[in-house]
Amino acid sequence: MYRYDEFDHQFVSERTAQFRDQANRRMSGELTEDEFRPLRLMNGLYLQLHAYMLRVAIPYGTLSGKQMRQLAYIADKYDRGYGHFTTRQNIQYNWIKLEETADILQALADVEMHAIQTSGNCIRNVTTDHWAGAAADELLDPRPIGELIRQWSSLHPEFSFLPRKFKFAITGAPHDRAAVKVHDIGLRAHKNDKGETGWEVMVGGGQGRTPMIAVTVREFLPEKEVIPYMEAIMRVYNLFGRRDNKYKARIKILMHELGAEKFKAEVEAEYARHPVQTTEVEQRELTRIEKYFAQPSFEKMSRFAPHFENAKRENVDFTRWAKNNLATHQVDGYTIVNISLKPEGGIPGDASGEQMRVMATLAERYSFDEMRVSHAQNIVLPHVKLEDTFAIWQVLKANDLAAANYGLIGDIIACPGLDYCALATARSIPIAQAISRKFADVKKQEEYGPVKLNISGCINACGHHHVGHIGILGLDKKGEEFYQITLGGSSSENASIGTILGPGFAAHEVPDAIETILNTYVKLREPGEEFLGAYRRLGPKPFKEALYATA
Amino acid sequence: MPLLKNNQFVNDEWTRVADADALPEGAKIIVNSARLIQDWDLLAKYTGLLGVSIANNERAEILTPYLSQLSLIVLNFPAYTDGRAYSQAKDLRLDGYRGELRAEGNLLLDQFQFMHQVGFDSFAVNERFALQQWQAASKQMSLAYQRGLFRISGEREVWSQRHQGFAPWEEQPHAG
Amino acid sequence: MSTVEKGQVMTANRLRDGDAVFLTRAGIWSEKIDDAALVQEPQATAALEARAADAVITNHITGQYLIDAERIDGKIRAALTRERIRTLGPSVRTDLGKQATGTAGAFAAVEG
Ligand code: HEM
Ligand code: SF4
């Protein structure tokens, strides 16, 4: 894991002092709200329905046990004993006081964390594959370049007042678990014939009210050119992105209005205009960072884990959890443990301070002191011995963390919605809860196979509904909440935007509508065909007919 | 409107000349970009010092052919949230412009250091903030991760510091 | 027969802690919507707006706006679900927010 050196420490503590001063100036009236808003947003502080909300960055989703403990401490001391893990691998606290925020930022700085640029029209927290460094299909660990980009983008003087927010996502594996094609910039690792690393640069993806899939502007950008090339893209965006209408201000709109070819030409022209003599420092820095992400010292073990096999023979619940929540590791004898934060009837992504501490202890004891936050709002223990999984499962079970629904219909992504969010048009959490109760039986969930169901409480799409196999968007119709269903979205390497099926549903109708969709799939699927594949083959028609037949 | 240079208030010796007005002899004048380009033949022979102001939706490249003969370029921040002039400034500095680069418009304390770092070296500020506040704001952060910045307050470049032997990318600008 | 009186209420968030507050007749910001001044006349709304603007200047509140509401048998019901959630707390965590501290409004986020 990356560790701060003296520079990183000093940077974050100066930034915290700066915010303390700004908050004091706001409370004394020296700064008006209009002036303070962008400053607090640059430090992750929003004003929401019930209080301030603080969004803390978990860069590329990686954190240590100690950091997780500190998040728990903040939840208990400054919030109401819990936090919400988000689709952007951040954590949000919902009950924050302005007068305590600087103290919280200091508590974060103490464990090498911060809330810098988790909001505002700047480069946001960089996200990656939550299985980075562990996944069997990985070409290389995307986190070192993620850390390089984190540093480069931190308080970037040129790019802190962009037309709109800007999000990077990076994957080092061919199977995309980081949704890189629906980010402002997505990077995907490739190796050339000589074994050198390069990055495919995808620009202009996004969700929100105009969802778009990113366009590849460079197939293979040599690694040493990443920073200057990113500067060129950012400069073109900063200069020419629209500022007259905030709904048209993302880079995807610039890409769309210029056309991909013209956009590429602008970037290449900007890149060629100021040739960089050398990026040797950047390369040395990347090498320095890479050392922190060296593989932990795995033991040499056989693939066969007798203790694990025994436990499975003796315990069906464990077997089910192991089947759904473990993923293949790069190293024999090890596995990736996915802790679902989606208990039946629970709030997707919420964890109590106590649960955070439990997970921290497990990470310290069994996973080389490392854990991840996934964009599906779950927690990952990336490097666990198969032989330890039964012990882990027992602890998880005792703490309401053993939902065996990873990747299934119960593993729902949901944004905070109208229960917390000032921009919401409808609630999303109660819908997630109702659906998860409806499909409480994991056996039934397994019959449906892998299904991603994503819910947003408004068109901003924080809950990724556009790229859910099944997406649900909460809207407001004359004061009533109602929900639009889309099918066929995906954030994988074959990304697609879902199609709206038809008229929306009242809240209480949604779970049945989902069941109708799933049953239609079960009826029409070919052997072994997953939900998304079936939808892509069949199109929306049979689903529409089934849903609206009786209406 | 006070003018800040080298963290001191100074007199603004520059005069704006409107498009239709005659050029005062041997003065320090600011014309806008359209006039600069249109009247270049005349302006190239101007007896005083020449400055230009460009709007923040213009490309900084339009000034490239004239840079060596310009002593001042004025860039505008119509709102503090509108960051285009940061990139214009950076573009001009990367193009080798070393004259005075002035920021005007809605300038706030908390962006002051960023402005320095992209190469601004003079600031038409409003009267709301005292000199000491500007001075403090110019050095809120003592470090920067980016390279190639102008570091008026002696900020250290983290990456160059970590990897000794690398000089910072760029020389400091001469105050105009 | 219940008495129903329609009008508007001034609301904001308190600057220091962000709590949702409502402007009373006495010019105090209460955490409880039932304490709020419910007004109909343009003059009265203008007076609320002026008070709120003062409270912005003294750095007590931020983000003030008027909401539609009605008083039913002495209790104030905000027109929008969003605003009713603000008078209660999250509907999915009834152990938190005003609904848990005795400052809740009297009407559920969604009836029925
Ligand atoms: C609760 C306060 C939140 C506010 C005010 C907020 C605001 C927004 C807005 C305005 C957009 C649309 C941006 C655009 O189209 O230009 C957006 C998009 C997005 N937000 Fe949020 N959001 C919030 C919470 C969250 C949470 C909890 C998550 C993670 C679960 C999240 C993740 C995202 C993602 C992934 C997108 C879509 C990608 C994009 O367009 O950037 N946001 N958010
Ligand atoms: S999608 Fe809408 S309701 Fe949900 S968190 Fe984002 S802004 Fe709020």
How would you sum up this structure, described in words?
The complex is a heterotrimer of chains A (551), B (176) and C (112). Chain A has 551 residues and is of the alpha+beta class. Chain A has helices at residues 6-28, 33-42, 65-78, 98-110, 143-153, 226-240, 251-258, 260-273, 280-292, 306-314, 316-325, 353-366, 389-398, 429-438, 442-448, 510-524, 531-538, 541-548; strands at 45-47, 52-56, 62-63, 82-85, 91-96, 127-128, 168-171, 185-191, 197-203, 215-222, 326-328, 334-339, 350-352, 371-373, 379-385, 413-414, 453-456, 470-477, 480-487, 499-500, 505-506. In chain A, the strands form four sheets. In chain A, strands 16, 17, 18, 19, 20 and 21 form a six-stranded mixed sheet that branches. In chain A, strands 1-2-5-4-13 form a five-stranded antiparallel sheet. A five-stranded antiparallel sheet of chain A has the order 3-14-15-12-11. The radius of gyration of chain A is 23 Å and the shape is globular. Chain B contains six helices and ten strands. In chain B, strands 2-1-8-7-6-5-4-3 form an eight-stranded mixed sheet. A two-stranded parallel ribbon of chain B has the order 9-10. Chain C is α+β, with helices and mostly antiparallel strands. Chain C has a domain at 4-76. Chain C has three helices and five strands, in the order βββαββαα. In chain C, strands 3-2-1-4-5 form a five-stranded antiparallel sheet, covered by helices on one side. The mean pLDDT of chain C is 95. Classes of the chains: A alpha+beta (551), B alpha/beta (176), C alpha+beta (112).
